[in-house]
């Protein structure tokens, strides 16, 4: 997320910010402390900074932090339901042969801490999204305007590892405390990303080299998550540990790996950085990020229609994709009565299907352009989510969840790189890295809205099928705003007319002739 705030500090010509960043070359020749690491973590180029290896290692632990929450979520839902049953006089320890207590009213799940147990994960999502959106500009300002970048990344990593260790002890007496920790976990993760993205942005000024670095990091991150998912699922199945036991297995593995990898990476492969720039005269550290965010957003709204509509689309569609795992987990537990192991296999389907989904998105984007490809993907999202909410009505529909999950996986692998490619072709040339942070922030700022809507519907007694289907409001909203961009080629030409060699000010007269000689970014280069 820090890319956003780096950009916002140098957006206008009359900005009083003083740039103090050292050139990349000043630290790119530092040697690796060890040559014993596997080749995937090493970058043999003599100009590769030591942080490249650190970020490669860091990608492993980042992946496990996120994936371990997928196994913790079902356990928290089950424990919350048990707590609600106990508070209503329903003893869950004396179940009949069907796994249900005869004294329990299955039509009323009860309440715990003033909420339905089934609202727990979405409530966590609401608070996580709100606090992250509020604090992200502050994290970015600290990373930009102080010499504490490494401290932010390192201490966030340490605290994330400690939280994983605490989560090992999830039980009927600790579930609510650990639920609160999930909010802190998410906020710390965003702070960690701020520092990591700042180091990533400095790896190279060559776009091709930067692409190579990012591709390697994404590959490591993806396969670490996939391996973790497989290992936890298979281990839990072999040990027959049950839903709560599987959560403990996942947190134990995450704690061990994160402690070792985070500790090793941030001890040996990251160096402190000076403040990138001074705080502007008219701002403080607390307000600098917010002021620049406000200014840049205002300029886009007033003078850049294609970009305005695209970011509005991202705010809605990305909030829905981000909430999909939380809402679907709740749906699988409370409607389909699936176990944690089954849910693990469902997410395995999602991850595996994401690989052909990414390839499919690239092929369709080349064939019909990224804008139409993104529109088509959102249509598939809407159809698949609608059918899932309509068809999957109970335990007898469990087997269908794997099919719907695979289609969701294809769409996730399709939409994210397509949106990134589309964005990079409609922003002004020469400001790609600056505006990429705004794109990332746009995907997060409304992340709390879909879980909030689901919680509201759930608390008033609406069917969870309606709650699952409510995601379509955001997919449909994203579709409408994408349509408002208009013709894709016109949007690209408009961006070229504002790029290098042309008038790149926000309020310049609109021109779509593309005669400024700026290089057009093709889809293969972006994907």
Could you list some keywords that capture this structure?
single chain; 527 residues; mainly alpha; Growth Hormone, Chain: A; 2 domains; 18 helices; globular; disordered C terminus; Major facilitator superfamily (MFS) profile domain-containing protein; transmembrane helix; ATG22/LtaA_families
Quick recap of the structure?
This protein has helices spanning 2-8, 50-87, 120-145, 149-167, 175-201, 207-239, 242-268, 288-303, 305-334, 340-368, 370-391, 398-426, 432-445, 449-459, 464-469, 471-483, 488-497, 523-526. By secondary structure, the protein is mostly helical. The protein has 2 domains: 1-8 and 47-92 and 109-281, Up-down Bundle (Growth Hormone, Chain: A), CATH 1.20.1250.20; 304-527, MFS general substrate transporter like domains (Growth Hormone, Chain: A).
If you had to describe this structure to a student in words, what would you say it looks like?
The protein is mainly α and 527 residues long. It folds into two domains: 1-8 and 47-92 and 109-281, MFS general substrate transporter like domains (Growth Hormone, Chain: A); 304-527, Up-down Bundle (Growth Hormone, Chain: A), CATH 1.20.1250. The chain is built from 18 helices and no strands. It has helices at 2-8, 50-87, 120-145, 149-167, 175-201, 207-239, 242-268, 288-303, 305-334, 340-368, 370-391, 398-426, 432-445, 449-459, 464-469, 471-483, 488-497, 523-526. Helix 3 (120-145) packs across helix 8 (288-303) and helix 10 (340-368) packs antiparallel against helix 11 (370-391).
């Amino acid at each position: 997320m820090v890319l956003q705030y780096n950009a916002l500090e140098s957006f206008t010509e009359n900005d009083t910010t003083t740039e103090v960043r050292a050139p990349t070359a000043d630290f790119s020749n530092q040697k690796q402390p060890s040559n014993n690491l596997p080749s995937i973590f090493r970058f043999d180029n003599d100009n590769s900074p030591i942080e490249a290896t650190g970020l490669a290692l860091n990608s492993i632990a980042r992946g496990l932090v996120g994936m371990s929450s997928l196994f913790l979520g079902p356990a928290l839902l089950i424990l919350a339901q048990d707590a609600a049953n106990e508070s209503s006089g329903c003893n869950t320890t004396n179940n009949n042969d069907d796994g249900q207590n005869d004294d329990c009213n299955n039509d009323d799940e009860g309440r715990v801490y003033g909420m339905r147990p089934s609202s727990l994960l979405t409530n966590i999502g609401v608070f996580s999204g709100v606090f992250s959106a509020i604090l992200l500009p502050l994290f970015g300002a600290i990373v930009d305007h102080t010499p504490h970048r490494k401290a932010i990344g390192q201490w966030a990593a340490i605290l994330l590892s400690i939280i994983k260790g605490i989560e090992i002890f999830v039980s009927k007496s600790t579930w609510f405390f650990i639920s609160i920790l999930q909010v802190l976990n998410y906020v710390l993760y965003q702070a960690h990303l701020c520092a990591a993205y700042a180091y990533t942005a400095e790896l190279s000024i060559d776009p091709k080299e930067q692409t190579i670095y990012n591709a390697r990091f994404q590959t490591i991150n993806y396969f670490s998550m996939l391996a973790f998912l497989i290992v936890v699922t298979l281990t839990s199945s072999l040990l027959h540990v049950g839903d709560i036991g599987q959560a403990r297995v996942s947190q134990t593995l995450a704690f061990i790996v994160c402690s070792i990898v985070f500790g090793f990476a941030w001890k040996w492969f990251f160096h402190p950085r000076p403040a990138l720039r001074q705080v502007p005269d008219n701002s403080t550290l607390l307000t600098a990020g917010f002021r620049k965010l406000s200014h840049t957003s205002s300029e886009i709204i007033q003078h850049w229609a294609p970009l305005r509509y695209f970011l509005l689309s991202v705010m809605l569609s990305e909030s829905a994709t981000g909430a999909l795992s939380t809402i679907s987990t709740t749906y699988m537990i409370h409607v389909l009565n699936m176990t944690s192991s089954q849910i693990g296999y469902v997410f395995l389907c999602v991850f595996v299907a994401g690989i052909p989904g990414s390839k499919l998105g690239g092929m369709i984007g080349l064939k019909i352009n990224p804008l139409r490809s993104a529109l088509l993907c959102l249509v598939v999202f809407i159809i698949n989510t609608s059918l899932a909410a309509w068809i999957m009505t109970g335990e007898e529909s469990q087997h269908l969840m794997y099919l719907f999950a695979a289609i969701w996986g294809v769409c996730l692998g399709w939409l994210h790189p397509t949106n990134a490619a589309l964005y990079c072709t409609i922003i002004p040339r020469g400001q790609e890295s600056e505006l990429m942070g705004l794109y990332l922030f746009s995907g997060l700022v409304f992340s709390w809205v879909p879980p909030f809507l689901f919680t509201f519907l759930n608390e008033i007694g609406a069917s969870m099928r309606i709650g699952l289907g409510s995601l379509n409001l955001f997919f449909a909203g994203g579709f409408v705003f994408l349509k408002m961009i208009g013709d894709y080629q016109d949007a690209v030409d408009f961006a070229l007319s504002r790029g290098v060699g042309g008038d790149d000010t926000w309020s310049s007269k609109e021109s779509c002739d593309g005669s400024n000689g700026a290089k057009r970014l093709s889809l293969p280069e972006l994907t």
